[in-house]
Amino acid sequence: MSSFDQELQSRLSSIREAGLKRTLRDVTSPQGPSITLEGRVSLNFSSNDYLGLANHQALKDAAARAIRDFGAGTGASRLISGSLAPIQLLEEQLAAFKGTQAALTFSTGYATALGTLQALLSKSDIVILDKLVHASLVDAARLSRATLRVFAHNDLDDLEKKLKWARTRLGTTDSKAHILVVTESLFSMDGDHAPLAEIVELKERHGAWLMVDEAHATGLYGPHRRGLAEAQGVSDQIEIQMGTLGKAVGASGGYICGSRPLVDFLLNRARSFIFSTAPVPAAAAAALAGLQLIQSPEGDALNQTLWTRVQQFNSGYPPAHAGHAAVKSAIVPIIIGSESNAVAVANRLLDLGMFVPAIRYPTVARGSARLRVTLSAAHTEQHVKTLTTALRQMNDGGSQTPE
Ligand SMILES: *Cc1c(COP(=O)(O)O)cnc(C)c1O
């Protein structure tokens, strides 16, 4: 073995010894309430496909039509080879859906975060992140070279403290520098909601900008399903609304919705947009079909089914059991603590035919490993019951229990 591979093998051994080794598992079926995982059919509680759109006929048809009319690939970035009709249409409809002046799409949500923060911020600025924001936002904040501060998760007092500190610091150094607060609206590993109205009030009081990542809320909350910002009535006061098209929308890609100047600026300065081949037409067309479906009566029905399943899960396996507070969320964490216990519980569920991923460091803090149950409108009442029954039985017997 070469010394290069030896070095990597030894790093991998440390990862394994810490109970953190990850491997890919083969799936030979489409996304859905059950999937064929390593050759076995399992109930799937791992996917962010909250409305069951990833394998929906309308999205597949839209993708197939886009391939027929616009081809499989895009050849270059949109600034070089031109902007394909399906992507243009998606952005128009996204802006209309969100009620903003404009929208810009990226190949992924991750690329969206990287490009946006790097474009908007420079070394003289200060970015203040919620402690639990997604890795893409942390990486993006680092890439931006702005001074980075973290506030305790959903802690308004701590946020205000950091805002005051930032204001004082900028006041003495650079009056043209900016403060940007970044949070998620629905947190991806805890399923809890950010107090957006209060955060808006604070950032206005201290003259900061606000970016909210609605990755897990788009399509699911608010009268028009725009997200939690709409549900909390503060969409118009958020400078930068981010999200992904890969979760409830059922396709792939990321977006920024906001003012026309914001979008025009990003397409001039966001490097992950400028220096990357445009997303394939099939992805844009599927995302557009997903957005349209979300806004249709069928979308309303799917939303209702989803919240019914969430309620069924919570009554079958109450939040207090799972070690988290009850909120309206299709993400239900079951806090276990030790990394190896979390994996053991997940493996036992898998033996019983239920795929619930164990989430470990570095996705969550060390020692706060958990099962992350995600529910979908595609689950049946029986699917949910099978899971809650198994969880309760594991709680009642055995040592490696989810408590
Ligand atoms: C999934 C996720 C992203 C990344 O989006 P992708 O489209 O999967 O790259 C960004 N932010 C949050 C909060 C997410 O959960």
What general outline do the C-alpha atoms trace?
globular
* Radius of gyration, in angstroms, nearest whole number: 22 Å
User: What assembly state would you assign to the polypeptide chains in this entry?
Assistant: single chain
- Largest beta sheet: strand ordering: 3-9-8-7-6-4-5
Number of strands: 13
Q: What profile does the largest beta sheet have?
A: 7 strands, mixed
Report the end-to-end length measured between terminal Cα atoms. Answer: 43 Å
Structural class: alpha/beta
Describe the fold and architecture.
With 403 residues, the protein is of the alpha/beta class. It has 16 helices and 13 strands. Strands 3-9-8-7-6-4-5 form a seven-stranded mixed sheet, with helices on both faces. Helix 2 packs antiparallel against helix 12, helix 4 runs parallel beside helix 12 and helix 7 runs parallel beside helix 8. The longest helix is centred in the C-terminal third of the chain and has 20 residues. 48% of the residues are buried. Pyridoxal-5'-phosphate (PLP) binds next to helix 5.
